[in-house]
Amino acid sequence: MRPPRAICFDFDGVILESLDIKARAFRELFSEHPRHADAIVDYHNANAGMPRYDKFRYFYEELLRRPMPAGEMERLDARFSALVFKAVLDCPWVPGALEFLRSYRQALPLYVVSATPEPELRRIIEGRGLGGYFRAVYGSPKDKKQNLAALLAGHRLEPSAAVSIGDGSADYEAAQAAGVPFIARVTPGKRPYWESRGVAMIEDLRPLAETLGLKP
Fold this sequence. Notes:
Rossmann fold; 6 strands
C-alpha cells in the first residue's frame, strides 16, 4: 500500500474500546422487553457503524412489530446518550491509537467518520483531549457512505489518496462505494467476515504506521 495523503477513522472500536459500552446501553435501553434483549444486542454487534436511529427502528419494526410512538426516537436517543457518554469518556484507547494520532496529526490530515450523532461525537472528542487532532469530524444523521463522499469532495481528495480504517461492515461498504482503500481493525468474532472480503487487517493500531508505509 502506498502511503496515504489522508486517513479516515471510525471512532468506536478503532480509536476507543467503546463497543461493549454501547452493547450494554442497548440492553439497558430496552430492559422492559427482556425477551428481545439478546436480539437487539446481537443486531447492534453485527451492524457496527450503523446509526443508532436505524437500530431503534429495527427494534420496533422487526422485534416489537409495532409503530414507534411519536417522540420515542428522541427519547431513546437522549437516554442512550446519557447511558454511554461518561463511560466513553473513561474507556480505554484502542492500543496504539493515541500514539498514532500524536505522531501523525501534524504530518497528515486525519478525519473521523462515525455513526455517532455529530454533536455528541464532537463532545466526546473534546472530552478525550483530541480537540485539534482531526481536520474534520463527520457523524450521523448522515450515514457513512454520505459522509465519506462529502469528506472526499469537501477536501478535494482523490479516493486512492486516502485510506479508511474501520471495524464494521458499514465502514467497509462506505469505503467500497467511494473507492477508498480500506483496512479493518479486527474485533472479536469478525475475522471470518474480513477474511471473506480479502481486506487488509490489523488487530489494533500499533502496526498501523508500518502497514501504511509511513515514515516514523
